[in-house]
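Hello forum,

I keep getting stuck at the same step: I have a sequence, I want structure tokens, and every attempt I make locally crashes halfway through. Rather than fight my setup again tonight, could one of you with a working pipeline run this one for me? It's a single chain of 351 residues.
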Amino acid sequence: MNFSQYTQLTIDQHLLKGDEIIDYCQSSPHENIRSIGVFIKEWLNENPYIKVSTSGSTGSPKTIEVEKNQMLQSASATAKFFDFQRGHSALLCLPMSYIAGKMMVVRALYSQLNLVCIEPSASPLAALPIDQVIHFAPLTPMQLKDTTTTRAVRKILLGGGPVDIELEHQLQSLNADIYHGYGMTETLSHVALRRVNGPQKSEVYHALPQVKFQLDPRDCLVIEVPFLKEKVVTNDIVELINEQKFIWKGRSDNVINSGGIKLFPEVIEKKISPHIQERFFIAGIPDTILGEKVCLFIESPPYEKEKLDSLNVHMKVGLKKHEFPKEIFFIPIFAETKSGKIQRKKSINKR
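Reply #2:
Ran it on my machine without issues. Output:
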């Protein structure tokens, strides 16, 4: 693929070519459309690389360079899986500062999609006209939370965070085909997908075409992508079914070793998420007897006794004995990354 051949973009039914895209975007009153113009200016230059910021999935957050042609190959894999057709409408309601927004524009360039632009918000689907047909909409789980109708949205790709039990239950009533993607900046967006609603609902992630998986000595996922020069080593512990399928268990740097038992905070969090409205996470802190003890951190002022007692009752029912938090800490405000993800270690230090 040659990125220099992909210079035509349709934004809100306006067919634009080359520098026309930049001029159109720069004149827009909407910040995210202006950001598209900044990206397209970089896309149209002769440099075969584009700089993107990572969120820290495989290490500390950093800026890396990725090949434009590799971005096109990633867009091609997504187009095949979701059966994009020329003229299909795709929603852009993610910020252009990270790979998800950038890749949505590249998908539109590659597949000649009509890019429907909505400013990033907590409820972007509510801003769509009632009769607006959207064939493909990448969203974060937060953007779909409390949504009661997907209107005329055909397919949704969730990314940027886990899908908890409560949200997954809510998604069963929506008519769109909803998938959860697994991927990161280093893999140029998702490399595997699982269906989260409908008859095909599954906890198993399936690789995109020609993507292969294996485990390293830590039982962490290693990803082989055909258009990347090197394998991507992750910090995600998975149950590997075969080269194309896995079940995600949790982050290796979050694993708690309590009394010789390895516990995955993400598994415990999923079990108790229906009973906590605020943001929260499970983590281990040093303990003289157990080595590490399971603790619950909630972003909230301390609960009143009745609310705390109710939470403990629910946790005793839903958790195994060794999963039950030995302490609960209330933190007024969690530490966050620039992309809004909770920084667990920094938040723990606030206790």
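The chain has two domains: 3-251, 255-348. If your local run keeps crashing, start a new thread with the error log.
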